[in-house]
Fold these 3 entries.
Entry 1:
Amino acid sequence: MHQIKTRSLVTGCLLSLLSALNVAAEEFNLTSATIADINAAFDSGALNSEMLVKMSLARIDAYDEAGPKLNAVLLINPNALETARALDRERKSQGRRSPLHGIPVVLKDNLDTADMPTTAGSFMLEDSIPPDDAFLVSKLRAAGAIVLAKLNMSEFASGGAMNSLDGPIYNPHDPERTPSGSSGGTGAAIASAYAPVGLGTDTGGSVRGPSSANGIVGLKPTHGLLSRDGIIPLALSFDTAGPMARSVYDVAVSLGVMTGVDLADAATIKSEERFETDYTRFLDADALKGARIGIARDFMEADEEVDWIVEASLQSMRNAGAEIIDVELPEWLLESRGEFYRAIRYREFRSQIEDYLGTLGPDYPKTLAELISKSMTLTSRRDDGITPNPGRWDLMMKEDDSGELTDYEYLAVRDHALPLMRGVIGGLLETEKLDAIVYPTSPTRPERADPDPDPDGAPGGGGSPVILANLTGFPDLIVPAGFTGRGLPVSISFLGPAFSEPRLLALGYAFEQRTGARRLPITTPPLDGELITY
């Protein structure tokens, strides 16, 4: 007690002295700090990477297996602290490699890491060590980022926010609610300030659903802007990784570190001469002034509280000088989007997962049929925590029965329907001279963690518009917009044409600065030692 009082007295005297000298004290707050704030604290000497990693580990220890037991983390990198110390020494002797130097990042467990297992959340890939890092993981490490942890996810990136390897994930704003899938672990971890930046993947909304449900910023980039090399595939026509963070600034920083043409992924050739390495230079708090924003009301009227927050968001944009234009999507497009999605998604997973499984050791399944066969050996929870996941495994049977990549339906959708979707939505943006189309990312508040089945439900064909960005390949930025009366997050999406990330990030940043709608979840409050005054 005497030591605490003495420390408080010294701190008070120091602050008084700074005030008398008219020197403003700076403050670092872990749970609200951007990467710019972290680097400022690094530069001042008040913080280093080792301290930052220890703070992150303390939050994981407090809230993942204890407290609300979010279960967002599958595996902690045992070398994280050692890497942090090495990067601290390097910063002192050579300066920083990039803005991510010494910054902890967390990865969805379908991104390959050569030094840690990559399992896609499945007991069928337990302890699988891939041959090398995913391209994006290599880029992050080269930039000086520290891979802190691999995160829980929907099994093989589809289905509910749970898997057979580690069970369900919970929403930190309300653990009785879902954090959404399939990047639910990333969404919950970033919202709870386990790390400043995380990576998810998105085939049909898997970055954007968890960003919305957990009240954080997320980006589904243009298809081909980020390499998919070393990512366990779900459907390569749609697959992309995407950064998730607590601020638009942090998404912009991390995106610029990861872009670039990758010879191992032909899709990235589309980004040649169109990608940027510093997206922060486009951030503009006045970007909404003079902007033309379309509102897709087709995706409203499902939840009055969500609708109210969207209307308030539109008014905020108007107040900032934006012109809001109602847009209407063709009825045939809305009715067919789910069928188009499934025609591609199911067949591609059936074919493409075999290519990935072929890179693994002999003890692992090599085909989707072998995955299904192995899944049927587990019908009850084991003593080691391995848990059946019938919802995902039933979907595997549908995927296995879906057909071949030579089927006329697949070829027709790939060669004609997808260009048609791009033409219609791209044409709408161009004809109306829109900077973006906005809509509620999820038309309803996050659902219960274990809802009863919906007999009329169909994957990819629900009320949410998110698969439109996958069907077109267009970018979609998610920004927190507000909260329901019971404190559940609501987000708004900014959809733009291919490679319009600079403009979307500018608009999202301007909206974020006006509304400040992000909040730390009530179940994961600040811990002692996370506030530093210097």
Entry 2:
Amino acid sequence: MKKTLALAGLIGLTAACGGPAATSKAPAPAKLTLVTQTAKAAGPLESATWLLDEEPGTLDLDSDGGTDNRTIMANVCERLMQTQPDMTVKPWLAEKIDQSDPKTMVLDLRAGATFHDGSPITADDVVWSLKRHAGEGMDESDEFEDVESVTKTGERQVTIAFKKPNALFEQAIAGGAGIVLNREVVERLGKEYGTPESPDACSGPYRLKEWKSGTHITIERHDAYWNKNVKPLTRTVTFKWADDTALVNSLVTGAADGAYLSETGPAVALQANKAVTVAYGPTTRVFVLLPTDRGPLKDPRIRRALSLAVDRAGIARSGFAGVARPWKVPVGAGAWSYEKQAFQAAYDQLQGAPETPRIEEAKKLVQEAGTPQAPIIVASNGEQARTVIANAVVDAAKKIGLVAQIKTVPPSEYGGFYTDKAMRAQVDLVPDDWYITKSDPIGFYDNGLTGSSNNWVGYSSPDYDKLVASALAATDPVQRAKDVIELQRRFTADMVWISLVEVPNAVVLGGKVTGPPASQVQIGYPWAADLGVKG
């Protein structure tokens, strides 16, 4: 998918959230160290128990590509390209990709790759799989909007023709859009495919062993796996589901061996416990403020002023107990999978989103805008992170001559801001977190396009729109980086969204295991193949 919205709130277990001053009184956190991979495993493991937030409703990722579903099936189903722990992508089931013509992509398939039933992966399977993903209502269908045709052009070759150049498609086929399925198995199973009674139809280092609805899902090492260079150490991985409290208890007692965390609360509770290891990795996830066009935030000078005045370092301390870092742009550094030095240099030069407030600069902007008297209404759902952010906005507004108030919305209704204009008409700012599934920032910046469904403030720039099109068409990474860096500059200059803090990916491991990536790749990389016993 082009973008994924994470609506789950983060819970900072150690921070106060009672009022505006909370962001300035919390203790300073230790500096986070980000790693792409946990320590390499030293030996084999018979079985491991891994925790998820909830039980999947289906394992057919075309029907539901949720995080828990993907975390399991990333070990079972393979893609034409594969995202690596360092967030780069490389050829996988496609041995080679040729895109000398920006509107044509030629995939040469790897010889010898087989499905779990032993049948070879053919060009026909690839064509059929891509067309299935592109089908109406399928989870990855938006990735195929620019695709004109998908055809078999050789015994092991598939050619994709585009209506217009699409530089992101290579990233897309490292995700759910590039999964290759065994056509014969899926068609034979029909509606049963993806249910507890059905086998998988894939080719990865693990195969689906058992799904006992309501209790667990187990995958087992596929000893006839076609890629002999991949040697998983763990024989079986059993997935169970638990809320935060049960997750923490299970990991501390050894009842579970690991989990990728969707919330920071368990990480904060576990990071000082010697029975487990918590590792943090690169991410694309950022907490932001989404402005609407109903009040003072219509004026970009007011948006810039708030950005200068809000205490990002305080938010990181109080809202996330230090498990976050102040951040200037709306997409995390995990998206910098190419031209990283160029992106870092451009990021360092940005001035509008400081770690600590620049109040006098902000006051001048407010005065230039006529010091509007209408109160700024900030949404919150009552959860820790959003409450701290909302309080920080109230505090910042007061210091620069504005008035802000908090409107609390039930957590179950918070997602309605994205679909219900009437809800948005009641507020001026919505704090929320976003991540993109691709490691390329251009996967985010279409949110600033004229008329974008997530461009609530009504930002409109023909030059910006042209630049998005140019970046999406730039198959040369150097040129694409230049375009994206300019988009980043324009987006942050007008504060279409106000970026606050970057939240890292987190994996927690029990005392006996190690090996899987810490970076945000567990939804597309076969992480269980790296899992094993500590040395």
Entry 3:
Amino acid sequence: MDYIEKVKENEAPEASSKTSEASLRIIDTDLDGLSPPQKVLQTDKTVRRKSLANKLNHINFKDETVCINFQHVRDKQIISFYGTPQPCFGNHLVCLWKNEPNINQLLAAYQFHNFIINDSQSIITVPADLRSINHRGVCFTLPEKSSQTSSRKTKRFSCDNLDVKLIQNSIIFSGLLEEFSPSSLRIKMEYSPAAPFQWINLKDHVNLIVSNGMDTLYSGECSILKITGSSKKKKAILQPTHDTIQRFNPKVYRSNRLELTPSPDILFNHPFTDKLVNLKVIDLSGSGLSVEDDEDSSVLLPGMIIPTMTLNFANSFNFPCKAQVVYRKAFEDENNKRMIKCGIAFLDMKSDDHIRLLSLLYQAKNKNFYICNDIDMDKLWDFFFKSGFIYPKKYSFIHENKKRVRATYEKLYNNDSNIARHFTWQRKGEILGHMSMLRFYQNTWLIQHLAAIMSKDQLKVGIEILNQIGAYAYDSHRLFSSHMDYLICYFRPENHFPNHFFGGVAKNIQDSKICSIDTFAYFHFHKSTKSNQELPANWHLEKSEFNDLSDLENFYEHQSGGLMLEALDLIPEDMEMSDHHDLSSEYTKVKLKRERRLYSLKYDNEVKAVLMLNISNFAVNMSDLTNCISIFAIDSENLTTEIIYSSVYLLSEKYKEKKFPILLFPLAFADTHSLKYEKTYNLWTLNMQHTDDYFKNFNYLI
């Protein structure tokens, strides 16, 4: 024999006699005990010797084991041992013990019964003949036929002993995850004085947390189906109680799901087993997808996080992301076969990958709509002038710096970045509608440059662009990489289109914590303006501190109660007030500038106004609202127009331009103090946690 030497029953080596009697153990192979019991379909089929040999060689290839059963000669009790099959080339099979039994004790009271191959969803029972046995292993003669029994509804998968926590009524029990299926999980636990097994309430639910030592992979409520084992070690079978989780706030208005041809696939290494999974996508949107799987081999568990998943389109291009399974539903296909449909939500995706995905999806829905496509800059400037977006007065503001403006827009439109987005409605290459977005504050995007060519379709194009902007914002705001907690837009009240839609949405919602509008006075400061260069006695200008912004917050809450300060990063968070804005590095990557400075104007140490200096490239916003000073007049007592101008003059050295815009809030201050201004601007702010309110009221206005 190649692997073991044939020995007589009474010739077991001495070494085997030293083996602990604990080696004789009963293995509980019933892992599907349910409470209450459920009817499980069982089907038997014959496995012939040739197929059995192939199966055994596959087990050897994977370095796995079979279960070898012995029966007590008197009371018929079964004990089991695990053996590793060696290569099988004929009628005989050799198995080496995984844990060596006490051969003398075994042969004295037990006789070989059969061995079992556990194939997750089925069990192959092999009534082999025993040829020989010793301390190294056992040799069998394989039968011509064996029996395969399908006794499980869903396939079980072995896990690499992931850490688990079972939390029940403030007690935490620790263990390891051994096996899982979407319907049950097997946990092994060891006794701990801090959480003894006696404290487990078998009739109450537990909260299960599965982790890999670094990240949480799953958490959910489970019922306890069964607990077995000794006083020191237990094994628990748990069943998830929910087929759906609520990952995000429930929404009425959701992403459009599209069925694409060819349909993409998702690929990922399963977080529990580390085995590669490949599933076909049924439908897809910018915020998630659904897939289908056979019921008996389903691998997705609602609540499970997939740290790295790839959305693959015909091996041509793909989108890596982090995702989470949010629901699992059974259905029957056209052949009456039971299938499982699972929904998966995107948790995060690189911004440029997400833009590419949305571009594909939106093009599939509307062939005229483009996101962040390559732009012919000559056609873009032609559109700006032809649509009237750049009108004579606006051009008078930028014409002296037209080379700088062209260079800036080249960087914004033809560079991949995390700070700029542009959306165009095109027909045969001609731009008929346009809108852009700029990430100008930490978690806030500025909507700007909305325009359309004058035509009978102008309103339709404008509405379609606004619709797509809304869809884009919905699909993006939940991704951490998008940094989109708020949307803002400056518009003039006399501009009918934005006032109808943005103003109308805010008016209809009637909740300033969901959507708010704040009005600014807008005027230009000329460095040549004659004004007092020094502040009067007892007045001084200094960098803003925590308490200064707290005063601004209190004033604004009383004055407006809206979202402006949150969106503009003016809510004080800590005592450390830094001049450097986190966005500076993102702008630097595309060779653009973005700085923010905060100053407080004080009289006898009382804050009268806060001045926010936004310093960026000229005309990033055509009205230069991204390169201006915003003044928030908190206390009008003793604060005059002359003092406002003197403060601006002292800070004007921060700007290269001979003139730059000023935004003053509240508008009432300018009116009360007869401060001359050119126009007013409304600042519209939307909290992206309330997209339902936006879409509902937007649709009313169409």
